[in-house]
Amino acid sequence: MLPTPIMEEMYEQMVTARYYEERLQEEYLEGKQPAFDISAGPIPGELHLAAGHEASGIGVCAHLRDEDTVTAPHRPHHIAIAKGVDLNRMTAEIFGRETGLCRGKGGHMHLFDPDVNFACSGIIAQGCPPAVGAALASKKRNDDTVAVAFLGDGAISQGGFLESLNLAALQGLPVVFVVEDNDWAISMPKERVSSIENGAERAVGFGMPGVRVDYDDVLAVYDAAEAAVERARAGNGPTLLELQVHRRMGHFMGDAESYRTNEDIDWADKQDPIPKLAADMRDAGVSDERIDELAASARERVEAAIEWAKEQPLPDPETAYEDVFVTEEPRRPAVPTGGDD
Ligand SMILES: Cc1ncc(C[n+]2csc(CCOP(=O)(O)OP(=O)(O)O)c2C)c(N)n1
Ligand SMILES: [Mg+2]
């Protein structure tokens, strides 16, 4: 059994991630009802929640240091929290504020924190090539930093991912690819887009180990990730991990999930990794009072970050052309896009 301080830390982080998303959901819905106006309210634009994915981000990042690089996909909050991204500035970014990680220009899918080498993107599998680049830099510097690229099961046939596996294996780079398998890509079930059930088998064709953790459990993820990260740090090359997680929410906020059965939603609920970890902690002798204390401290941290973010100033419109590649005003105003992904 894992030492209890490690379990406690992971529990606090998992509750932080879950509660953070519950609070974001409340803030997000403000002003958007009844017709679901995606541009209204304190958090305009899309929001993809990762409730049910916590075991992945938290179990993997438990082995990482600030100097290690992490790239995450469009469902990034649990991974960002586990990597130690500044929660206040991340929240300010999500609320579109000037003091946000990207001065309020990126939003929830485009968080970037150079202090802990974290980035995410709304383009699926996009994080794989930059993670391989970071791993190549580690190898050239001859240090023991590693890179981890998180992606979804819907991205495992993307060229960017497959080419990254090849380059990483060929060059023996210190990188771990982590597929979060929640069985869905928006409304598309996994079996309709991949001829293999176990995505970790992709690794075989590239000559690297592929490991699947097929139940939603942070302690199992912790063990699998430990081996993969150690292998990378020791200079023995990349690993592909596929982790079974569950999407407890719609693909994005506002998704009516008409394509999903109630049984599937109930199943996701029953697989919740947070009460599972609490049960393991009790078995290891952690008291209920201690577990409640950890949850309370997680909730306090989240409330403080949301309160701070909401007090932050909105960006001055004059700054819209700063920090971007295009410096001239467009001939036509940009057309706002709807939320179909
Ligand atoms: C290259 C690219 N193609 C399509 C999309 C639209 N899109 C956004 S999320 C998504 C599905 C992602 O599914 P998965 O990778 O399994 O992640 P999940 O949402 O299940 O966490 C798609 C197709 C995109 N963002 N990028
Ligand atoms: Mg998926």
From TrEMBL:
Cofactor: thiamine diphosphate
BP-aspect Gene Ontology terms: pyruvate decarboxylation to acetyl-CoA
Lineage top rank: taxon: Archaea
Domain (Dehydrogenase E1 component): residue spans on this chain: 40-318
Keyword Oxidoreductase: yes
Segments forming a coiled coil: none
One protein family per Pfam: E1_dh
UniProt keyword annotation of Oxidoreductase present: yes
Membrane spanning residue stretches: none
Keywords: Oxidoreductase, Thiamine pyrophosphate
GO molecular function, one term: pyruvate dehydrogenase (acetyl-transferring) activity
Protein name, as recorded: Thiamine pyrophosphate-dependent dehydrogenase E1 component subunit alpha
Originating organism: Salinirubellus salinus
